[in-house]
Amino acid sequence: MAILTIRDALNQALREELLRDENVFIMGEEVAEYDGAYKVTRGLWKEFGSKRVIDTPITELGFAAVGVGAAMAGLRPVIEFMTWNFSILAADQIINHAAKMLYMSGGQFKVPIVFRGPNGSAYQVSSQHSHALEAMYANFPGLKVVMPSTPADAKGLLKSAIRDDNPVIFMEQERMYGIKGEVPEDEDFTIPLGVADIKREGTDCTIVARSMTVPLALDAAEKMKNEFDVSVEVIDPRTIKPLDTATIVNSVKKTNRLVIVEESHAFASVGAEISHSVIENAFDYLDAPIRRISTAEAPMPYAKNLEAAALPDVNKIITAVKEVCYL
Amino acid sequence: MAKTATTGKAAGEKSNGQENSSAESRRESALALEALEILQADYEKRRKSQLEAIKTLDKKLLREMLYQMVLGRKFEEKCAEVYRMGKIGGFCHLYIGQEAIAIGSIMALEPDDMVITSYRDHVQAMVKGISPEAVMAELYGKIGGCVKGKGGSMHMFSAEHQFYGGHGIVGGQIGVGTGMAFAAKYKGTGRVTLCFFGEAAVNQGIFHESLNMAQLWKLPVIYICENNQYGMGTSQERAMSTRNIAKKAESYEMANEFVDGMDVLAVRDATLRAIKRAREESLPTLLEVRAYRYMGHSMSDPGNYRTREEIAKYQQRDPIKLFEGSLREAGIFNDEDFAEIEREAATAVEKAVEFADSSPLPPESELLTDVYA
Predict the structure, then answer these.
(1) Cα separation, B41 vs B19, whole angstroms
(2) Which of A69, A155, B193, B223 has the largest count of CB atoms under 10 Å?
(3) Does domain A197-324 have CATH number 1.20.1250.20?
(4) Which domain holds residue B73?
(5) Chain B interface residues (partner A, CB cutoff 8 A)
(6) Residue B158 carries which DSSP code?
(7) Residue B110, exposed/middle/buried by CB under 10 A (0-12, 13-18, 19+)?
(8) Is position B9 within any domain?
(9) pLDDT, tens digit, 9 for 90 and up, residues B212-269
């Protein structure tokens, strides 16, 4: 297996799918001649040309709409948002059109489209470029929401998302583009949507983390083992919707303790949904209240110290794990 | 024959007794009536040549055009009637008065061409090929509806007939239609897209974003702005800094035309020119088609914002009457032909109602199907 960054794993997935299916095209701001704002589409315009890799004006609502219409008429668009924060301009097309089209048309018009880009915070990019939006999109029937945390997952899930006949919200994380890992080279390597992955097995406490918080949770788990001899299981749902509730519930039935770590704000979050599922399905197994680590309930500040204080980190996770373990 | 075919009641004729007498309203009404006079003056100028041209058109086509207009009118009148009986729920936006636009434009297309429109979609759906039965059953929320009772009045769709829906977010379909045209060009199908919207949608960002991309990327799309002069209860005068919508296309260097939306042949001619441009040069066009809706914005709109005089004046220049007059004068059809067309349309509407009445409700199992493919 090759060692790739998440950036290059995504690039490889896009390239393979462009090669595999001529109905696949990429569209977004700076995706072509500039090679992508975060270089995820590097080299693709040179290889596939302006028909398949298309620079757009700064017109998020407009090019999201073009993607929806093109998907209804038989293409498989991959629409890049430079950050998911800009997708809010396009929310009408994603939510009112893409998500509802199949249903409104009585099953006649599929919208096989992927909307992708970085979600959540980066490095001091402040309030309007740092929001983690997965809870909002996960609320709409008709959408799938995917959030990979490793290069292999990024590649396998993106390929599945492009092949899926539904609109898929594919959320990356700018801080993670450089993370390296092993990636299978098989061109038909895919990871099914809706299947969680146990990133570390354990027996004493479950952490459910996603995207940027997965490496933090793994770090915390290692420290808990070394410093307190607590065995932590780390679960990455990978797909937020559909959510693999069974894997999470089964883990909690084993460990009897749950900490949820997420980059989004806590109120009405995916973590709240996970917490509800566990209470509903494993109430009698819980030995401690469920704890959540989320981003502070404020817009993201610019100052480095304030930004760090707002976000989940390893120490916050360790504190929560110790709490649920009564240490 | 026009007697029953053109009796579409003015917007809340009864409740309209309370005419809005504000200076603002009088000014708006004066503008609407002035626009009507300009349309009529232009029409009189081209009438002679149109009468000659009409004789060169296929008689079967002319008959079908008139039939579709009468059917559309009668269908919508029936909708109003059964809506008041509680057979149709939710919102219901009627097309009465605007028939020349759907018939003039959609009937200029090839069957494979694509159409997308707003929530005022019953007549467009039928002209594109969806049966009156399937449209009426959809309005009734029955399983026999064209989307199995899941969409209702605002969301008629048919993949078979390449009808990409009625859409409920003002302007949203302008962007989707642009994407359909993008797909046609990408695949090289040669198909064109007709994309309908009202004049109020022109104030949405998506209109401008779409026109920019369509001209920039040379997409085979025809934007048809059905300017019925009122966005719900707000006149164009109160909502737009300029009355000239066609001219907005010039900001994007896009071809455009102002069209008399009560003259079905004028709509057809303008659409044919736009289709040629789309198919042969892969270029978009914006058509501003001036029209007038006789009914309120929806069935729940009493229509107090327009004067009775304004509505009555527009009804005198009814698109069906106008077309019939030309057909009669050109010696193509006589009163007997008109009566026969009217009977056929009435029968089709009755059949649609019978079908809708007898179609079962969607089974509850439909609730959770078609959410994901």
Answers:
(1) 28
(2) A69
(3) no
(4) 21-357
(5) 114, 116, 145-148, 150-151, 155, 157-159, 164-165, 167-169, 172, 174-184, 186-187, 205-206, 209-210, 212-213, 216, 369-373
(6) B
(7) exposed
(8) no
(9) 999 999 999 999 999 998 999 898 988 999 989 999 999 999 999 999 999 999 999 9
Point out the residue among B148, B168, B182 whose CB comes nearest to the CB of A70. B182
* Residues with Cβ within 8 Å of residue B309, at least 6 apart in sequence: B29, B33
Comparing A169-173, B37-41, B137-141, B185-189, the range with the smallest average pLDDT is: B37-41
Q: Which residue of B155, B179, B212 is in closest CB contact with A65?
A: B179
**Single pTM value for the model:** 0.94
Judge whether A33 counts as a catalytic residue: no
Question: From CA A41, how far away is CA A10, in angstroms rounded?
Answer: 8
Q: Do B147 and A105 make contact, defined as CB atoms within 8 angstroms?
A: yes
pLDDT at B14 over 60: no
Does residue A129 have an active-site annotation?
Answer: yes
Looking at the DSSP bridge assignments, the partners of residue B287 are B224, B257
DSSP structure class, residue A257 = -
The pLDDT score that the predictor gives to residue B297 is 87
Q: What is the pLDDT of residue B22?
A: 64
Please report the pLDDT score of residue B29 as a whole number: 83
Reported as type and span, the H/E element at residue B208 is: helix B205-216
What is the side-by-side strand order in the sheet with A76-80?
Answer: A53-55, A24-28, A76-80, A114-118, A168-172, A144-146, A239-241
Q: What is the mean pLDDT of residues B15-31?
A: 63
Q: Can you tell me the distance from the alpha carbon of B333 to that of A46, in angstroms, rounded to the nearest whole number?
A: 62
Of the partner residues A73, A106, A141, the one whose CB lies closest to the CB of residue B150: A106
> Where in the sequence of chain A do the CATH 3.40.50.970 domains occur?
2-183
Q: Which fold has domain A2-183?
A: Rossmann fold (3.40.50)
- Per-residue pLDDT, averaged over B285-295, amounts to 94
Nearest beta carbon to residue A141 from set B116, B212, B371: B371
Structure tokens at B340: 């026969």
> Over the stretch B79-138, which tens digit does the pLDDT of each residue have?
999 999 999 999 999 999 999 999 999 999 999 999 999 999 999 999 999 999 999 999
A166: distance to nearest CA of chain B, Å? 6
The distance of Cα B108 from the centroid of its chain, to the nearest Å, equals 14
Please tell me the total count of domains within chain B: 1
B159 and A69 in contact by Cβ < 8 A? no
Distance from CA of B231 to the nearest CA of A (A): 20
The domain spanning residue B283 has which CATH number?
3.40.50.970
Strands A144-146 and A114-118: unpaired
Closest CA to A237 of A111, A127, A149: A149
Tokens 């083992």 belong to A225
Q: Is residue B3 part of a domain?
A: no
Whole-number Å distance between alpha carbons of B41 and B20: 28
pLDDT of residue B4: 36
The H or E element containing residue B348 is helix B335-358
Catalytic residue among A16, A17, A29, A60: A60
pLDDT at B1 exceeding the cut of 50: no
Neighbours of B92 (CB within 10 A): 22
pLDDT at residue B347 in the model: 98
Segments of chain A scoring below 50 in pLDDT: none
**Distance separating alpha carbons of residues B98 and B345, to the nearest angstrom:** 17
- Please state, in angstroms and rounded to a whole number, the distance separating the CA atoms of residues A275 and A320: 15
Residue A215 phi, psi dihedral angles, 5° rounding: -60, -35
- Buried b / exposed e over A254-270, threshold 16 CB at 10 Å, is bbbbbbbbbbbbbeebb
- For tokens 């929560």, name the residue: A320
Distance CA A275, CA A288 (A): 12
Residues of B in contact with A67 (CB under 8 A): 179
Asked if residue B11 belongs to a domain, the reply is no
